[in-house]
Amino acid sequence: MVRVYLELTGKGASRAAKRGDVTVIVDVLRSSSTIITALSNGAREIIPARTLKEAVQLYEKHPEALLAGERNAVKPPTFDMGNSPLEYTWGRVLGRTIILTTTDGTKAIKLAGKDARAVLIGAFLNASSVAHVSYDLALKTESDISLVAVGKKGNFALEDFLGAGFIIRRLPNVQEIIDGALMDDAALWAYYSAGAVEKNLKKVIYQGEHAKKLRILGFYKDVEFCLRVDVFSSVPILEKSILVEYKACKEHYCI
Ligand code: MLT
Questions:
Q1: What is the pLDDT of residue 114?
Q2: Which of 103, 113, 205, 226 is most deeply packed, by most CB within 10 A?
Q3: Residue pair 170/128 in contact by the 8 Å Cβ criterion
Q4: How many separate domains does the chain show?
Q5: How far is the CA of 177 from the centre of ligand 1 (A)?
Q6: From the alpha carbon of 73, which atom of ligand 1 is closest?
Q7: pTM tops 0.90
């Protein structure tokens, strides 16, 4: 039976990876939601970068790519795109390679990428699909699942914690996992918290720090967009340091 862990900040990505877990990176506002939207709208691949410098260096190697990201939630002046999922329309991203650097999300992805069994990207937008894919991969590779609620600048973030809770609630056999005492306390806490706020999710998350900051900066519609549940089936997976859409039968994950 699969065990389920929840890491409460981005630094936990390396702990999850060292355990060799199937690791789900959850940065609801906004990098996970942006990545899921971009791949759902036909982007070819997303190359995550830790720093602005690294992103620019990657862009020099891939001048055909779109250079994207944020610092303090705002697009760096020379970049093509920011970190608003609403920018990542079909017309803009279809077939494109995107180099993305964000304050916390892409750092956590890179940390997990070092050792994790597999790195997936999750949010409210793809909660059910990422729950099912992570469970399948954990069974196939005989490993456990870690969710990483990335948070902001090393701190806890409510929306990532609840996003992880929504994903945990959608794991196949979740009741057996709980009954078998195979979930750590943080994961259990997220599971019950997500259940408690299911009906007034928006109200609760709007009270959170990052949602408030984004609304003040004029990104109100991003917050609305990122809080929709199960609107995409796409599950981004990290392969050789690049995020692509998970396909059920990629060579090494085939039954
Ligand atoms: C991050 O990775 O820190 C974020 O996605 C910040 C944001 O643009 O809202």
A1: 87
A2: 226
A3: yes
A4: 1
A5: 32
A6: 8
A7: yes
Q: How confident is the model at residue 250 (pLDDT cuts 50, 70, 90)?
A: low
**Measured from the CB, is residue 113 less than 6 Å from ligand 1?**
no
Amino acid letter for position 183: M
Average pLDDT for 72-97: 98
| 99 domain-assigned | no
Distance CA(228)–CA(242), nearest Å, equals 26
Is residue 116 a part of any domain in this protein?
yes
- CB of 222 within 6 A of ligand 1: the answer is no
Residue 154 pLDDT exceeds 70: yes
Reported for 191-197, long-range contacts at CB under 8 A and 24+ positions apart, including other chains, are: 191/165, 192/165, 193/161, 193/162, 193/165, 194/162, 194/164, 194/165, 194/166, 194/168, 194/169, 195/165, 195/169, 197/162
- Let me know if residue 76 belongs to a domain: no
* CATH value at residue 196: 3.90.1560.10
Q: Which atom of ligand 1 is nearest to the CA of 70?
A: 8
Establish if 83 belongs to a structural domain.
no
Q: Which residue segment(s) compose the domain that 8 sits in?
A: 4-50+106-240
Query: Do 62 and 99 meet the contact criterion of CB atoms below 8 Å apart?
Result: yes
Question: What per-residue confidence (pLDDT) applies to 255?
Answer: 41
